[in-house]
């Protein structure tokens, strides 16, 4: 692992993992984690996000894997945390009948699950008045997070906002279509290891945590790194291709994850001819006689 500081950014390059390889292994479903990584977790590198500069983690191919920034806005974090604590208990907080954690989680978003055309999630519709108030109170947080996305992944930032949505729908979280709100309360158990496989393969999600807590580090399994996040730290990362979970925290911890779903990319491709890099990658490979794979 090589690290150096350049233009007020702390760079970490991981020689043992490449973003391209992770994307090639991507499937739009959960896949098991390599047991070797579970055995090795105690030896993972622990990394803290500096208060005065971003941290950028890249793979051996130069691909951006994760980008962390301390927001340094305690008033915004207090508002975010208080507005999460004030939310009513969600009606449904299981994913396919299985709890992701003991967190009370809700998904307020525009997505295209099980349909060809994007729509508002049922949880948003169930909580519409409360959700709209939440987004209004915290719009500056999502604006700041979107700005960070624009700094570290300008192409994705632009692509997220280029294509329209069906009439009556809008982007709820700045550049992103929506978010998952996780209310840990006073029982901030660690989340189970997972990938957010339904999210954009070539996009980035944004995580921010808030509250009064210690611990709760973000484990990025294939990267063999634990980000020791603090309240107000923003992490932009490829949660669709990187298995992740968080360590147990002490205190009161909540978080918000902003995302755009892969199926919405497919909608934009059908309706507006948006180029899908996953399809371009497949077309660029052809098998010739003798089993040799060539790239066009």
Write structural notes for this entry:
With 296 residues, the chain is α+β, with helices and mostly antiparallel strands. Helix content is 27%, strand content 30%. The chain is built from nine helices and 16 strands. The chain has helices at residues 19-24, 35-40, 74-85, 122-126, 128-137, 139-152, 154-162, 262-272, 277-283, and strands spanning 2-6, 9-14, 45-48, 55-59, 64-70, 104-111, 119-120, 178-183, 205-215, 218-220, 225-228, 233-237, 244-246, 249-259, 285-288, 292-295. The strands form three sheets. Strands 1-2-4-5-12-9-14-8-6-7 form a ten-stranded mixed beta sheet. Helix 6 (139-152) crosses helix 7. The longest helix has 14 residues, at 139-152. It is globular. Mean pLDDT is 87; it is low at 2-6, 283-290 and 292-296.
Gist?
By secondary structure, this protein is an alpha+beta fold. It is built from nine helices and 16 strands. A hairpin with a 4-residue loop joins strand 4 (55-59) and strand 5 (64-70).
* Main beta sheet: 10 strands, mixed
Care to count the β-strands? 16
What gyration radius follows from the Cα positions, in whole Å? Answer: 19 Å
In the predicted model, the low-confidence regions spanning at least 5 consecutive residues are: 2-6, 283-290, 292-296
In DSSP terms (H or I, runs of 4 or more residues), the helix count works out at 9
Indicate the multimeric state. Answer: single chain
Mean pLDDT over the full residue set: 87
Shape: globular
Return the string of H and E elements: EEHHEEEHEEHHHHEEEEEEEHHEE
Strand content range: 25-35%
N- to C-terminal distance: 32 Å
